[in-house]
Amino acid sequence: MEKPNQYPLPRFSVNRPVTVVMSLVALLVVGYIAYTRIPLTLFPEGFDYPRLFAWASYPNAGAVEVEQKVVRHLEEAVAQVSRVKNIRSSAYSGGGNVRVEFQKGTDLQLAFAEMKDRLDRVMPELPDEIEQLWVRRWDQNDIPIMDGAIIFETQHADPRHLIDTYVEPALRRVDGVGNIELWGSPSKQVIVELDRDKMLSHRINVFEALNSLRAQNLTVPGGWVIEGGKKIYVRSVGRFQDVAELANTVVDPAHQLRLDDIAEVSYKRPEKDWVNRIDRKESLGFGVTKASGANVVEVSTGVKEELENLKNHPKLEGLDFKLFWNQGDQVINSVGNLKNSGLWGGLFAAIVLFFFLRAVRITLIITLAIPLSLLTTIIALYFIGWSLNVATMMGLMLSLGLVVDNAIVIVENIYRKRQEGIAPRTASIEGAGEVGLAVTMATLTTVVVFLPLILMSDEEMFSFWMLRIGLPVITGLVASLL
Known about the structure:
By secondary structure, the chain is of the alpha+beta class. It folds into 4 domains: 8-37 and 359-481, Multidrug efflux transporter AcrB transmembrane domain (Multidrug efflux transporter AcrB transmembrane fold, Up-down Bundle); 51-137, Alpha-Beta Plaits, CATH 3.30.70.1430; 142-188 and 272-327, Alpha-Beta Plaits, CATH 3.30.70.1320; 204-268, no CATH class. It is 52% helix and 20% strand. It has helices at residues 8-15, 17-37, 63-78, 108-122, 159-172, 196-201, 206-216, 243-247, 259-262, 296-311, 327-357, 360-367, 369-384, 390-399, 403-419, 424-434, 436-454, 460-481, and strands at residues 51-57, 84-92, 95-102, 133-137, 146-152, 177-183, 189-194, 219-227, 230-237, 250-252, 257-258, 263-268, 277-278, 281-290, 319-326. A hairpin with a 2-residue loop joins strand 8 (219-227) and strand 9 (230-237). Helix 2 packs across helix 13 (369-384). The two termini are 25 Å apart. The mean pLDDT is 81.
């Protein structure tokens, strides 16, 4: 005999069919919106790696000189930052860097500000050639989503100028692009090559000649004057405008020696002891990084379209583009694998269920739990602010075989009661209510398995990944229970 207050949730679902149907329609609408708007990335975002990096460029200096004059000062400065765990440094020809790892739970924003302050204080102790110290925080968005090459089919006088003028600005204008990196061909530079014999014959001191050039290549503010009721700012402009002006600069006023008397001044690309070629043709490498929160697939598609447009640019005749790595394709393949797994999983589950139940209607009802549970999980991920990536999609695929268990137990019990001749309404309420507690406990035991892995505190990275894998599984199981 059915009791009035027994099994409230199944009874509500049976007595309020309009409410249930409208809830299902709302789930489908919101799920579609979430699925079309959720960001697609290859790796999950949000992990704060407790490290900061600092480096300095010291041109034309050897590794030993960099270590003694730069890296030691950097180490002493960053060692005074709070909560430093360990410091690793390296010196090489032309510069040096320091990697600082902090203790667990450190606020990296505060650590970044403190480290920047310490390095600014040490700047006066560094050589004059070092103009700036760079401090960076590891950010997942710094990983390029696309790597490729720009191939020059024909010879160009200054290929880097073409790239800096036409290609790089066009790629930066693509929605979602954060940065464009280029490598493989240095830009033209003003190069002064001193003649050692001429320097010795004229008894020119290199240090004094260098200071003389610096003194004549500067812009100095001169204050302001008031004339005719107007305030006019004055500055002394003394920067070199072209190579000829630099070559005619007097470096020894006593003997009226000009720079081109003791050196060769030219504007050209510096010599290099390496080449960057593809199919024996000169090339440049490039990398594209996305802005934070941008959709990888949309950014990669926009970049590929822009590259096709650039091939038809009249100024870029003879240029070709080749992509080596496209994260957008990897994401599309991952989403495709998820769809295929869902379809095949649902198909095999339907075949097995139909083999035992021999009822098409019941089989379809049970199979419907798979897309509804996945849709509910995607809605949860969208409103949490997560993306569809390798980890979350792995969790979705793990949940495919689990979400049908609850539906199988409940629907099979309802089917058994219908076979006993009980009315459809009563069979639905009693069939779901009798096994409701058992199904709930079974679901919660599966959910609890993931909690120790998610809540592990010793390994932050492991916990981070397990949370991204476990939460979709937990959400899918809870959705299948409801």
